[in-house]
Amino acid sequence: MNARSTRNASPCVSDEFLEFTASVRYDRRLWRHDIAGSIAHVQGLEEAGVLTKKEKDRIISALKNLAKDIRNGKVSFDPRLEDIHMNIEHLLTERIGEAGAKLHTGRSRNDQVALDTRLMVREALVAVLSEVLSLQRALVLKAVENKGTIMPGYTHMQHAQPVLLAHHFMAHFWRLGRDCDRIIDCYQRMNVSPLGSGALAGTSFGIDRTIASRLLMMDGTTENSLDAVSDRDFVAESAFALSMLMIHLSSLCEELVLWSSQEFAFVRLPKRLASGSSMMPQKLNPDIPELIRGKTGRTVGHLVAILTVLKSLPLAYNRDLQEDKENLFDVFDTVGASLHALTAFLGEMEIDPVRMRESAEAGLMTATDLADFLTTRGIPFRKAHGIVREIAIEADGDMDEFLKLAEERLPKAVKGLKSKELAFLRPERSISRRECSGGTGSRAVGNQLKMAEKRLNSTKKIIQRLTTQVEAVNALLDN
Ligand code: ARG
Q1: Could you list the residue range(s) of the whole structural domain that residue 374 is in?
Q2: What would the DSSP string read from start to end of 107-136?
Q3: Which residue, of 112, 181, 202, 334, is most buried by count of CB atoms within 10 Å of its CB?
Q4: Distance 194 CA to ligand 1 centre (A)
Q5: Among protein residues, the one whose CA lies closest to atom 12 of ligand 1
């Protein structure tokens, strides 16, 4: 017998067909989840009286050996067998014959792939969550190190009001906090077992579906077999949660690109983590932030591709669903690598607080404080805004000129104003007046840092709990 006739799942189909339809090239990544799912499945089969204890033990020990061999690189998968699920079943049957051929009783590749993908996604979500936590820690560290550093705050990318650099870093922290929430939320919704749904209508073998769900440490079983085999919401949801996360990273990265330019010069690039130019000897480039900015497009592209694959699919399983994986895998790889690189970059980049403080002097950023002050002297805010605007336009961005004009003109508008009172227009004083919760005042930022610490601890605990569930897959393979 030649290799083709023994290994081809359907010996009559053409090579071109197999080449077009095979997915093992990429879905081999599901091998651990597939084997763990099978181990959980045979426990249910034994309990239902479909397999004897002996058969079950034989299958499980062969599956574990197979797992060991795959891990040690001793197994090659065959594209003629289409996907990872067929490959593993074939390898098992090759090793133990008849007993192996009983593995697929009461199961379809449709509920099998739905299970495997869920197991892989929950693992990948937890890995991303840990990476986000590290990046959040790096941001907190930067905030703490730069507690007193003042920088210009921007709207429309124009100087707006002075803020603490720590406040700015913490803004990115809280964005990432929402990303963590979305990831955890997605995890909790998707951690249920579709096994037992069969091809679409449910299994007829009286299998207790909770057995597999419990062994895999999932939080329950799906409610409807048609829905279970066709549901890829969790794929789209993960891709969205990770795209939103990348959009947040791209925004931080855009700032780092700007801040490292000669015009801003707020930060110095870490030499170890920046490239030079092949032609210009003086160059140092912010490659990591630039690439993350670029990879955001790639991630959002995958999200759109996944949603488009799902659009208009009739119930229940359709082969289109196989097209979810390459996009999804790349989302996880891209986001994981981006988080890792950015955390390292933040840790090594150097901030120039003097330059930031200087910049905070430019652009009359405390004009609002002056208008606010006038309102405390009984001038309605709209009018106060008009008075200050006039002076600001005349001063044309020059802070000294602005102060001079204010000193000259305001006493006319505000009875009893002493020129030395204008010291409140210094950026430090402007910041210190903003101690409302969530404001840029240093006490308010200190409170934020305390809340952030609590938040990091609670996310850490959630990661620990979810890791125990995720580890059920490896535990089933190893024990
Ligand atoms: N490789 C397939 C997928 O990823 C597995 C399910 C195939 N089912 C089928 N009836 N052809 O979706």
Answers
A1: 367-425
A2: --HHHHHHHHHHHHHHHHHHHHHHHHHHHH
A3: 112
A4: 14
A5: 322
CA–centroid distance, 82 to ligand 1, in Å, is 9
Task: Write out the two tokens for 462.
Answer: 């959630």
Distance, CA of 85 to CA of 464 (rounded, Å): 30
Catalytic residue at 156? yes
pTM score, whole prediction:
0.95
Residue 81 sits in the same domain as residue 118: no
The DSSP code for 266 is: -
Same-domain pairing of 395 and 465: no
Residues 325 and 375 in one domain: no
The pLDDT value given to residue 6: 43
In one letter, which amino acid is 63? L
| Whole-angstrom distance, CA of residue 141 vs CA of residue 88 | 47
Tell me: do 93 and 114 sit in the same domain.
Answer: no
Residue 5 reports pLDDT greater than 50: no
| φ/ψ (deg, to 5) at 81 | -95, 20
Q: Which residue of the set 61, 261, 277, 437 is catalytic?
A: 277
Q: What is the pLDDT of residue 248?
A: 98
Q: How far apart are CA 322 and CA 83, in angstroms?
A: 10
